[in-house]
Amino acid sequence: MGCTKVETGSAGAAGGRHAWTQPGVLRVGIQDGPNTLNPLIAANTTEAMLARLTNDVLVTVDGTGKVEVPMLAAEVPTLANGGISADGLTLTYKLRRNVLWQDGVPFTSKDVKFSFDAIMNPRNNVISRTGYNLVRSVDTPDAGTVVFHMKRPYAPAINTIFAESDSPYAIVPEHILAKYPDINKVPYNAQPIGTGPFILKEWARGDHLEFVANPKYFLGAPKLKSIIVKIIPDENTELNQLRAHELDWQFEASAQEYSQLKSIPDLRIVLQVRNQYERIEMNTAHAPLNDTRVRQAISFAVDRARLVQDLTYGSATVADQDLPPFMWAHASAIARYTPDLAKARALLRAAGFAPGPDGVMQRGGKPLVLDFAYNTSNATRRRAVVETQAMLRQVGIATEVKPYLASLLFAPLGLGGILQTGRYDLAWTGWVAGIDPDNSSLYMTSAQPPNGNNDTRYSNPGMDAAQVQALEHFDIPSRKRAYDTIEALLTRDLPLIPVWWPHQIQPINPDFHGFDPNPVTATWNTQEWEI
């Protein structure tokens, strides 16, 4: 699917609003109440979504994910306008001059530098410093200019630094937060003062949050009067409130709920694409998975289309690579694996395996049995592992399912994480990234733990060279050639199997207009929302 969003369901009421719609008031349902509203220490998509109501980034992207949009930056830095230096080592941002913090203090380049310093402060509990750790220094020659000096050319920088990255960070106020040694537990986290379109009016913990329009927002006063965010831990309760028209938007409904949502009248469902995929990781450091033929056999045995239908109820799209079709780096000319049990068995025989008396493939008298890990908290992955286990058994590959708590499966190397320490053969996991196609932290030899997320221990000099090209060239044609090579190598070498591209399922009231989520952030354009 090449478009950014698919919409199903009703349009608005004929002749105006439905009777249950409250003009100017948007009612939103979330399942998990936030721990913080500080955008620099937001740790999940709910906290990040809420933080963007009050705080802004330098650069965002539109609903297609293809057009960069300046926010606090007056323009997007490029090679053409001189914002990116010819050697790629200097990034200069001209800032908007008409921006005020919600307490009336002018926004300046000092706020950008302070926010950068806060991210790099080792005392602060930020979840990622990717990209920011490649900045050598930050200059503020005047109130309206900020200059990032890079340690090396880094093409994803404009879409990473205070932009729609894997972990989007918005700017916070220097005049409020500079006095603290760290920002982990400060009053600001519950009472944010931002530059954004909405102001926090009330946070009744465990129950609701209310935001009201910022009349002095630099892009114009929002069209909504207020946003009321209800904390509803039970998804069935959210579903009932949608049916009763007590919600105008359910934030990120689950795939299990999708079929029921489609049956609700007077409801619009927006399927939002992301740079995200579900996958089967394969530990290439473990025999026999160090043999490409075995990994290819596994790929031919897995029926991705059936998994998508059985487990996502049609809300996802079958994946043939990690980068989804809406991204410019998506590769069209690559090999594809459709289910073929005969090919899978032939590849296993070529790798020296033969069927044993119980049907399980053997080599040197040793049966082909693989550990298959997943996180217990994810019901969809639990079902996926069971179905995949049966598919692999058809070609003579036996698996032993290994359930883990997410806190152990995904823990860093120093804390004994199963993936990072390589104590697995197969693992069903997922990956969510930002608007830039950069996937170097997954596939470069130098990105093996603890230096990155190359949990599969994949190593290929050709991959390393292509990733360097993708990271150090700022022009799209050069980067596209690099990603064509990257995706071709991944398809051939298969350190992991992309299974499906999920969609974020966003059910909304058909009277809710202007909702145009981009592939990273649903709340990037809230000043344009109306109901």
Structure description:
- This protein folds into three domains: 1-31 and 197-274 and 504-531, D-Maltodextrin-Binding Protein, domain 2 (3-Layer(aba) Sandwich); 57-173, Dipeptide-binding Protein, Domain 1 (Dipeptide-binding Protein, domain 1, Alpha-Beta Complex), CATH 3.90.76; 276-501, Dipeptide-binding Protein, Domain 3 (Dipeptide-binding Protein, domain 3, Roll).
- Helix 9 links the parallel strand 18 (369-375) and strand 19.
- The protein is built from 14 helices and 22 strands.
- The chain has helices at residues 45-54, 109-120, 174-177, 235-243, 258-261, 292-301, 304-312, 341-350, 379-393, 406-409, 418-421, 440-443, 461-472, 476-493; strands spanning 5-9, 25-30, 59-61, 68-70, 90-94, 135-142, 145-150, 198-204, 208-213, 226-231, 249-250, 268-273, 276-282, 317-318, 354-355, 361-363, 366-367, 369-375, 398-404, 426-432, 496-501, 503-508.
- A six-stranded mixed β-sheet has the order 14-21-13-20-18-19. Strands 8-9-10-2-11 form a five-stranded mixed β-sheet, with helices on both faces. The protein has a three-stranded antiparallel β-sheet with strand order 1-12-22, with no helix packed on it.
- The chain has 531 residues and is of the alpha+beta class.
- Helices cover 24% and strands 21% of the residues.
- Helix 13 runs antiparallel to helix 14 (476-493).
Radius of gyration: 24 Å
CATH architecture title of the largest domain: Roll
Proportion in β-strands:
15-25%
Count the beta strands: 22
Task: Specify the number of helices.
Answer: 14
The fourth-level CATH homologous superfamily of the largest domain is Dipeptide-binding Protein, Domain 3
CATH fold node name of the largest domain? Dipeptide-binding Protein, domain 3
User: Would you identify the regions where 5 or more consecutive residues have pLDDT less than 50?
Assistant: none
Assign the CATH class of the largest domain.
Answer: Alpha Beta
- Kindly state the percentage of residues in helix: 10-25%
Main beta-sheet strand count, sense and barrel state? 6 strands, mixed
N- and C-termini, Cα separation: 29 Å
What coarse outline follows from CA principal-axis ratios? globular
Strand line-up in the sheet with most strands: 14-21-13-20-18-19
Q: Give me the secondary-structure category.
A: alpha+beta
Mean pLDDT across every amino acid position: 94
Query: How many structural domains in the coordinates?
Result: 3
